Amino acid sequence: MTPAARVQAAIGILDRIAAGEAAEKALLGWARGARYAGSKDRAAVRDHVFDAVRRWRSTAVLGGAETGRARMLGLLRQQGIDPDTLFSGAGHGPAPLTQAERAAGRDPAGAEAADLPDWLWQKVVADWADKAETVADAFRSRAETFLRVNTLRGDLDEALRALAEEGIGVEPAPRARFALRVTGNTRALARSEAYASGLVELQDASSQAVVEALPLHPGMTVLDQCAGGGGKALAMAARLNGGPVDAHDADPARMADLPGRAARAGADIRMVADPRGPYDLVLTDVPCSGSGAWRRAPEGKWRLTPDRFTELGIIQASILDAASGLVGRGGALAYATCSIFAAENRDQIDRFQARNPGWRLETERLFPPDQDGDGFYLAVLRR
Ligand SMILES: C[S@@+](CC[C@H](N)C(=O)[O-])C[C@H]1O[C@@H](n2cnc3c(N)ncnc32)[C@H](O)[C@@H]1O
């Protein structure tokens, strides 16, 4: 495909997304009908689409309309690419720009420029004050890929050597001890021996830093109360020299891949349908807005509603209350979100402490979404 044809493909997919289709589904629908597209074409089209979804508002304002065509035009303008080089009608690319299209569009302002719905931009400003623009900007950029070296399978040097031998570029990442930033050949990872053998796991560096900040020691009894795919359960098992870690999720189907991942990682993870306790440590990695990871899943910021945000707050409080009953005397209750909002973070802890006297805040971390990892929050309480 020519670069212009890739832009034309993205335009069609963005129109499907605007009509209500999920981005992944729209991409898949296009790919099925585009057998001529090679892997590089697919990756380039995907990048255009997700870049535009991250910048859904600003690209439409700059492009002058709420269409896929205008959004791609706006995106190219933002990227400093002369649209006429691609909107030429040649090579299966988009038709040349009309005079009206050339004249349309203006610079976005406020929430438009932040690429957030108005109500969320107000929340970011309220919580992050002079850092609000930096936070919003992070959501408008692509996320980097991070690996966790699984110390149950090898050490940092072994991982660096193994990845280098397979032509995968990495460098140590500052946010967590065993975090590596992928700097080249990311696509080879899934097929790499380092990954297949469990020497490295895909995990965001802030997610790793959360587990690193937990008071974990081999021999402790540990429950991951909202285990999901098990990223944190596996990282906790590594800190426990293999485990065991009890893993629970209200939706057990979410843990479907966990036994396979645990076997690959050499971790002892036990699925528990009805955890009883008492545990030395219970981690609640609760459902949240997902705001800290909006650059990976940018549709989240457009889909979230104030009602859902309120509902999430109620769910978070009830999980925290239930989990506190599973912690033994002197034990620790850890609360984590991949959210950047105080309502889901510190406010939840303040209200929990007001409802449940006797718990003191032992550790608190708030990681901003930036080049070193996603946005994440952790509070560790002890009684
Ligand atoms: C943020 S995800 C967990 C991610 C996971 N810990 C990881 O590191 O990969 C939140 C999980 O909480 C689960 N969940 C929702 N309500 C719950 C509840 N009341 N009790 C336990 N888990 C719940 C969801 O099914 C979801 O898998």
UniProtKB/TrEMBL annotation:
Record's keyword terms, sorted:
Methyltransferase, RNA-binding, S-adenosyl-L-methionine, Transferase
**Coiled-coil boundaries:** none
Xref: InterPro entries: MeTrfase_RsmB-F_NOP2_cat (IPR049560), MeTrfase_RsmB-F_NOP2_dom (IPR001678), RCMT (IPR023267), RsmB-like_ferredoxin (IPR054728)
Statement: the UniProt record of this protein carries the keyword Methyltransferase? yes
Name the active site residues.
C338 (nucleophile)
Where in this chain does the record put each SAM-dependent MTase RsmB/NOP-type domain? 135-383
Chain intervals for the UniProt region annotation (Disordered): 85-109
The Gene Ontology biological process annotation of the record reads: methylation
- State the superkingdom: Bacteria
- Compositionally biased spans, kind Low complexity: 100-109
Residues noted as binding S-adenosyl-L-methionine in the record, renumbered to the chain: D249, D285
What GO terms are given for molecular function? Answer: methyltransferase activity
Pfam family of the protein (one): Methyltr_RsmB-F
The family this protein is said to belong to:
Belongs to the class I-like SAM-binding methyltransferase superfamily. RsmB/NOP family.
Protein name per UniProt: RsmB/NOP family class I SAM-dependent RNA methyltransferase
